[in-house]
Specification:
Elements (H helix, E strand, L loop, with lengths): L21 H15 L10 H8 L3 H14 L2 E3 L5 E3 L4 H25 L2 H16 L3 H19 L2 H27 L4 H17 L3 H16 L5
Antiparallel strand pairs: 1-2
Helix pairs in contact: 1-3, 1-7, 2-3, 4-6, 4-7, 4-9, 5-6, 5-8, 6-7, 6-8, 8-9
Length: 227
């Protein structure tokens, strides 16, 4: 398949970078552009263009694209050219099934390990979600909330598995929130109450109750898997 090279959009969070962790900052900027949809599926990611936008050499850009490939957001062809990964319905089904298994397990573990510090952090995150007006920011805060639940499980292998799909979940949720917006639905009104109910059940100390609450949370978002 031929992928046409086209000028990159003007926004993309691709302003010049400070010279500290160039590859890390490039990963953050490019990932955010993909999550927001400003870099669309199958868009060619030309190293020269990205380097010019970010004000760096091609080296940190190349490193960033390799890391984003590992996260599942970028693909390389046989010639080494990169593009934004085009997720299929089956791809998102796989991400969902993995997420479902990990988070249901996490909820069961967290019910017995949740601390007051965990609760305070999760409550603060819900407040941040309620206050934001930006859909992409809401998506990132949503994933961060679930990050914190994974962290509260204090289960290292679980956390490692979670990191393998985290960025793909961000893409999924961002697309879901945009779809809700097009249907005149409030993502905040769907997300915030759900997280409050989930936290209440995690705090109960009842493993079965916490597990069922997470199953409900996952089922609620299952219908928003992009087609």
């Amino acid at each position: 398949m031929n992928h046409k090279t086209k000028p990159l959009p003007s926004k993309l969070h691709l302003s010049p970078l400070a010279r500290r962790s160039l590859a890390g900052d490039a990963v953050t900027r490019i990932r955010r552009a993909i999550i927001e949809g400003e870099l669309a599926a199958e868009d060619a990611l030309t190293e020269d263009q990205l380097a010019a936008k970010l004000g760096v050499s091609r080296v940190p850009v190349r490193e960033a694209l390799i890391e984003l490939e590992q996260e599942g957001l970028v693909e390389f062809d046989a010639r080494g050219r990169s593009r934004v990964r085009a997720f299929t319905e089956d791809d998102f089904e796989e991400v969902f099934s993995m997420r479902y298994s990990l988070e249901v397990m996490a909820a069961r573990v967290v019910a017995k390990r949740l601390t007051q510090d965990d609760v305070q952090d999760l409550e603060a995150m819900i407040c941040q979600q309620a206050a934001t007006k930006d859909l992409t920011e809401l998506s990132l805060l949503d994933v961060a909330f679930h990050d914190r639940i994974i962290q509260a499980a204090r289960h290292r292998p679980l956390a490692v598995c979670w990191e393998t799909i985290r960025s793909q979940i961000e893409v999924w949720l961002a697309r879901a929130h945009r779809a809700q917006s097009k249907m005149k639905l409030s993502s905040i009104e769907l997300t915030v109450p759900g997280h409050r109910r989930l936290l209440a059940d995690l705090r109960s100390g009842n493993e079965r109750k916490a597990e069922n609450a997470m199953r409900l949370e996952m089922a609620t978002w299952r219908e928003w898997l992009p087609a």
